[in-house]
User: Fold these one by one.
Assistant:
Number 1:
Amino acid sequence: MRVDVLTLFPEMFPGVFGTSILGKAQEKGIVSLRPVNFRDYAGNKHGTVDDTPYGGGGGMVLKPDPIFRAVEDLLSAKPADAPAPRIILMCPQGESFTQRKAEEFAEEEHLIFICGHYEGYDERIREHLVTDELSVGDYVLTGGELPAMVVIDSIVRLLPGVLGNETSAITDSFSTGLLEYPHYTRPVEFRGWKVPDILLSGHHANVADWRRKEALRRTWLRRPDLLEHVELTPKDQKWLEEIRAEHDE
C-alpha cells in the first residue's frame, strides 16, 4: 500500500511513521508512508496556500489550487491502468471513522490524505477532488494531522504481515462488532487477585465460550448500542439473559 499525506507540517510525521508497527511495516516493504508539503505547490514565491473567505467572516480558507496541484503531481507518476486512489479529506464534518471503514480502506492500494488548517477548505476541494471525508470525533483540532495519523495507524495494522500475530486484528474491539474480552497474563495471582480458573484449564472450547460471553458482558455494560448491530446467535442471546440476571442481583 502507498499512503501520501498532504500537510503543511510534514515534520510532525517522521516520529509516528518511523516507529512501532508503522515503522516495521515500512521496513518490511508492506506500506510506503510519505508526508507531502502542499505549500510546495503554491505557485508563488510566498508559498500562499490560504486566503480570506468570500462574503467576509473570520479565519482563513485553504485555496484549492495548491491541493489540486499536489494531488495531480502524485497521480502523474502512476501507471495509466493503476486503480484510482481514495482521496480522504480529514474534516470534523466528515463521516465518523470506524473499524469497518478501516477494513474497507485496508483493501486499497493507494490512499491520499488531505490535512487542513485554518478555518476550512475551499468547497471545490470537497466537490471535485476528494472521494471521502472522515472525522475522528465530534470535536475540533488545530489541524488534520493527528486525525490522519490515527486513521493510518488503524488501517496499516490490518494489512497482511504487519502484525506478528495475524489473529490480533481479528479479535480486537469493534472488529467483531463487540468490545474485546478481558485479558490476563502471569502471575496467576497478583495482590490477591487471581486469573479466572477457566483460562488455566487448557480447554480451548470452554475458553472460547468464556471469552465470547465476557465480550458480550463488556459490550452490554459499556456500549450497549453496539449490540443493535451485531448478529447474535441463540447462544449469545442466552448468555445475555444470564448476564442481565447476574447484574440485576
Note: The first helix runs from residue 14 to 17.
Number 2:
Amino acid sequence: MSGEILDLIDENDQVVGRASRSEVHGNPALLHRVVHVLVFDFGGRVFLQKRSEDKDVQPGKWDTSVGGHVDAEESRKTAVRRELREELGIPPEGRPAPSLTFLHAYRHENDYESELVTTWMCRWDGPFHLQESEISDGRFWSASEIESRLELKGEESPFTPNFTDEWRRWHRAGCPRPE
C-alpha cells in the first residue's frame, strides 16, 4: 500500500503535485483526497467496519462503512466504486451496483494528515465480503447504539475520530437516508 500515489491538492481542490501514501500519512501539510461511503440497510442501520489491528491509522477501531484514498488522476466516483468492491465486495459478481447519493464534502485535519473527504451514501443489505487485510469485522449499528458510545474519548472510544466527525456531520445535515 505504501506504493499508492495520490494527488496533492490546494484549498481550491486543484492538483498541485503528487506524493506517496507514506508521504501524506504523517505530514498534515499535504492535503489529499479521500472518499467515504455510509452503507445503510433497509431498516435504517449503518454498516461499520472494524479496522484491522495491522492498520497504521486507528487499528482495531470501528470506522465509516467504506473509506479510501483517491488515487492520482482517479475520479472520486471511480474511487468510491473501487473502494466499495475492495473493502466490502459490493456489488458481488452478477449483481447491479447500488445507487450512490452524494452527501457532503469537508476538510478533515488532525496531527497525522489533512484530507478533503467526499462522502456518499447507499443502501445495501448484503452480502458483504470483507477485505481481510484491512477489516477484522463488520456489522450494522443502530443510531442509538452509536450515540450511546459516541461520547467515549481516546482509547475508550470504539470509533475512529474520522467516523465520529462523519457521524456528527451527517446528523447536522438532517440525517438524510439513501433512496
Note: The chain has a mean pLDDT of 93.
Number 3:
Amino acid sequence: MSLLEALRIAFGSILGNKLRSFLTLLGVIFGVATVIVVVSIIEGFNAYVDDKIANIGTNAFSLQKYSIEDFASVEALNAARRRNKDVNIDDLEALQELAAGSRTIRDAAGKAASVADVKFGNETLQKIQLKANTPNLAEIENIETADGRYFSAADEEARRYVAFLGSEAAAKLFPNDPPIGKTIKVDGRTFQVIGVGKELGTAFGQTRDMYVAIPLRTFLSINGLRRNISISISSTTPEAYVEAADEVRTLMRTRRKLSPSEADNFGIVTPGAINKLRDQIFGTIQIAAIGVTSISLVVGGIVIMNIMLVSVTERTKEIGIRMSIGARRRDILKQFLAESVTLSLIGGAIGIAIAFLLSQLVATLTPIPTALPIGWVIAALTVSSGVGLVSGVYPAWTAAGLDPIEALRSE
C-alpha cells in the first residue's frame, strides 16, 4: 500500500465518522491553540521590549544612578539607593570631554524627567511627562521632528525657555492652530513652542506622545544643578560598543575614587542588559506556561489512542477482509498510523487558526502585543503529528497483529 492510498483511506474513515473525529480532535485543537497563544503573547512581548524599550539608540547605552541588576529585587534596589550617588551635569561634562579625545565614544547627551502641568489658553494638560534633554540626544536616541525644529546648542547654553511637544500634547493644546511660535505655560513658566515630535505610538497601552521637552540646562536652572540625570552615550562603531562602555566605567570609577574591590555605585544600562533581565524574570514563566499548556496536548494524544483502539475493535472484520485479499501487516500498520497522524495534523492546523484569531483579538482588545513566528507554527504541526504518531502506534500494531481468520469471524 502506498502512502497516498493510506492517506486516502484515512480521510475516508475520518469523513465517515465526522462527529467522532471532531470530538477526537478537540484535545489536540485546544492543546495546540493554548500553546500557540501563550507563545505568541510571550514572543510579542519580547519583540516589544526589543523594539520600544531595549532600543536605546544606534550603538547607544545609558549611564544612570542604578543598574539593571538593581531592579532584580527590592533588596538590591534598596541597597543601591543607599550606595549609589546621583549622576549629575558634571559627570556629563566629563564624559563629553572624554568623547572629544576618544576613538570609541562618539558623543554623550544628558536627560532628566519629571511631570508638569502644561497650559495654553483654556486648555490644561495635568501631570504630563516633562523631558529635559540636551540637543545632541536627538541624534543618539533617534528623536524625529514632525514640525519645526529640535533644541539647538544655543538654546541649551543660553538656557532658553523653549519647548518641544509630543504629537498628542500638541494636538490637544492646539487642535485648530499650528503650535510653532506659540507660547505655553509649563508649571506657570512661559515657554515658546519650537517643534513637534513625530508620533511614537503606545507602549503597553500608554501613549508615548503626551510630553513636553525643554533644554536640560533650562530644567536644571529651575530645579537645581545637582539634580540627578541620566546620560546616553553612543560609540563610534558597533565594534567599539563594548570598549566604549569600559571607558565610561573606568572614568566614573576614577571620578568616584572607587577601589578595585568596590562595586560600581552607578549603572551602565545596555539593550543586552535589559534583555538579560527580561529573560531572567520571564524565562521561568515562559517555560512553566508552555509546560502547563502542553499537558493538554498529552491529553489529546491519549484521546486519539483510545478512539483508535475503539476503531480497531469496530473495524476488525474490515481488517480481516483486507488481509484476506492480500493486505500485509505493514499495510494495516501504515493505514492506522496514517489515520492517527492525519487526525492530529488536522487538529493542529485548526488549533493554529484558532490561536491566530485569539492572538489578534488579544492584541486588539488589550495593550498586550502578540507575534506568531513561523518557526512555532511549524513546531506546532510537527509536535501535533508526533503526538498522533505516538498515539497511533499501539492501536496500529494491535490492528496489524489480528489473525485474519479470527477477524473475519468478528461480527
Note: The chain has 14 helices and twelve strands.
Number 4:
Amino acid sequence: MPIMTKMRDNMPTILILLVVAFILTIVFEWGMDYLGLRSRGHDYVGVINDRKISYQEFIELVRQRSEQEKQQTGKEPDENALNRIRDEVWNSLVTQTLVDEEIKRLGIEVPDQEIVDWVKGDNPPEFLYKQFVDSNGVFNRAAYEAAIADPRNKEIWIQIEQGLKKQRMQEKLQSLILASVRVSESELFEKYVEQNLKLNMEYVFFDPNKYVTDEEVNLTDSDIEKYYNEHSAEFKTEPTRKLKYVKFKEVPSAKDTQSVISELEDVLDKVRSGADFMDLLNTYSETPTTEIFYKHGELSPTKEEKLFSAKVGDIVGPFSDFDGYHLVKILEERTGNDEFIRASHILINIQGNDSTSALNQAKEIIVKLKKGEDFATLAKQFSKDPGSAEKGGDLGWFGKGRMVKPFEDACYKAQLNQIVGPVKTQFGYHIIKVTGKSKREIKIADIVIPVKISSETRSLIYQNAQDFRYLAQENGFIKEAESVKYQILETPAFTKDGIIPGIGKHPALNRFAFEKDLGDISEVFPIPEGYGVFMISEIKKGGIRPLSDLKESLKPRVLREKKMQILAKKVMEIRKEISDADPLQKITEKHPDITVQTTGQFALISSIPGIGRDIKLIGVLNTLLPFTVSKPIEGTRGYYIVKILDKSGIDSTAYNAQKDMFKKQILQTKKSQFISEWLEQLKKNADIEDNRDMFFR
C-alpha cells in the first residue's frame, strides 16, 4: 500500500514533530531540569526553596512560550505580552518545583515498565493515540506499533517516556492528595434542593430600628468594651508601608515622533518619484487596507476634516491621529443614498419648570445672530453643552437616528447656513446652524505608522531614573525631586503580600518596602508605564487596633446587637399570640402596624422577592413544614415570622436520575478548590525569592 509505505518512511519526522510539541508542553508545565538543561551558572532570577533558577533556564522557557504565542497569534509578543509571559513562566516554575519536591517527599515513583505497559497497552497516551487515527476515526494499531519498533525512533521514544513519567507522577500525586475528597449523600441532596426547590410564602418582617427605639437600649462603655473583646480578631491589623515615589514614564520622545514623520515623508517622496502607493502601503503600514467606502461621521474627527476636503487622487499627510501618523490617498468617491448633516448649536438649559426664561434667552441670542454676531463666539459664551461649546457649538457630521427627533427634523429641513430655532427638546432650547449637507462617500488607502518608543529613548528614560536615584541618595529624596520639579507621588498603605495601589502586584517592591528602613531609597524598579524610584515614607507595625480608635464606630454595631436582643423577645411574644395553623393575618388584628407580605413563587437558589438573598433566612426555609407558622427566624437585617404556602420541586425520581450529574459537579468543584488551596499552602510555606526585577526592566 503506497500510502502506508509513505507513512512508515515519514514516521521519524512525524514523531520528531510530535515529541517537540509534547516536550514543549511538559517543559512549560514542569520546568526543564529533567532534560538536563539547567545552567550551572551563578546568575539567578530566583530561588524556590533550595532550587536556583538560572537566567539561562528562565529565558529559554520564556523564549519557548513566546514562540508558542507567536504561532497562535501570528505576531511577535510586545513588551506587555512579554511581561505577562514572564509571570506565567515564573508561576509555572514555582508550582513545578514545589510539586516535584512533594513527589520526592512522598516517595512517589513510576517504574519504567509502567510506562512501557501504558504505551504498548490497549489505551495508549491520548496525545500518541491521536497521531495514528485515520480520517474515519479508526486507530491504526499496526502503524503505531511499527513506529515503536522502528530503531530510528529510539532516542525520541526515550524523551517521550521521560515526559510520560513526569505526567504519571503528577497524576499519582493528585490521586494521593485528593483521596480524601468525597461527596456525601446530604451534599448531593442539598445541591438538588438548592437548584430545584421552589417556594411560595407569606412573612412578617421585624426591623430592629422600627420596633426598638434607641431609648429602650441602655448602652454603656462596658457593653462596647465587651463587644470589642469578643470580636478582637476583626480589628487585627497587618503591618503596612507607604512609599513616596517619582515615576519616569516610558513615552516616545520628540525624536521618536520625528522618525515616524520622516519615514512617511520618505514614502511621500517615493510616491512623487513614481512609486505605487499601494505597494508602499503593503511595505510600510501596520494596518491593511479595506474596500470600505466611508460615510461622514465614520472616521475620526481629524480624518473627517482632512480627507473629506480632499479630491480623488490626492495624498493627504503626514498627519497625526490618536493611533499614530497617517499618509492617506483618496482612491474613489461616490454618492451614497444617505444624507449627512453637519451642524452647530447653542443649548440653553431649562432651570426647573421655568421654560420662559430659557426661551427668552434663546430668542435674545437669535437677535444677536441676525445682527451679524459670530455663532461660534456666542456658543462659547452661552451654550450649556460641554461637549460642543468649546468648539464653537460644532457637533460634527451625523446621520438620521443620531440626534433626538425634534433636533434632527429641524436640521434636515433647514437650508445650508440657516439659523433655526429655538427648537425645544428634553435637553432645553437649541439654536441651530446647519454648516454642511452631503451624500459623499470615499474609499481610502491609509498608511499608518504608530509612534513607538525606541530602545534609545527607553535607555535614556532609565538612565534619568538612575541619575535621580543617585542624586536623591546624596541630597535627599524630597529635596532632589523638588529641585528638578519631579512630581512626588505617594501610595496608600499596603501590606506585605498585598497589591500596591497605583503600582499593582510587585513582589520585589513589596520586599524592599518591608525589608528596609524608613527613608531608605530603592533601586530603579520597573512599574506600569515605565520606571519608579521609591522611598519608604511610613512604617506601621501590625497588631490589634486600640479600643479608643474604634469606640465611636463600634457604637452603632453594639446598639444594633442589643436592639436585636430586645427585638427577639418582642417577636417571640407576638408569635405566642397565634397558633401554628393560624393565618399570619391574625397578627395584624392585634398589631395594625404590622404588614403581612407574600413573595410569590421563587427558587431557593435565587433572591427572595421583597427580601433579597438573606443567607440566614434561606438556610432555614428548607427545614420548614408547609402551612405551619414558623418560630421567629433571625435574618441578616432583622427577624421574620414565616408561613410556607407552597413547596414544590422535590421529586425523588428526578433526584435519583440527576444524582450522578450532581455528584460529578460537586466533586469536580471540591477537587479544584482542594488543589488550589493545597498549592497556595505549599507556596505560603515555601521560601521563594523572586529576583526577576534585576534582569528585566
Note: The chain has four domains: 2-177, 198-235+548-648, 239-251+454-541, 255-449.
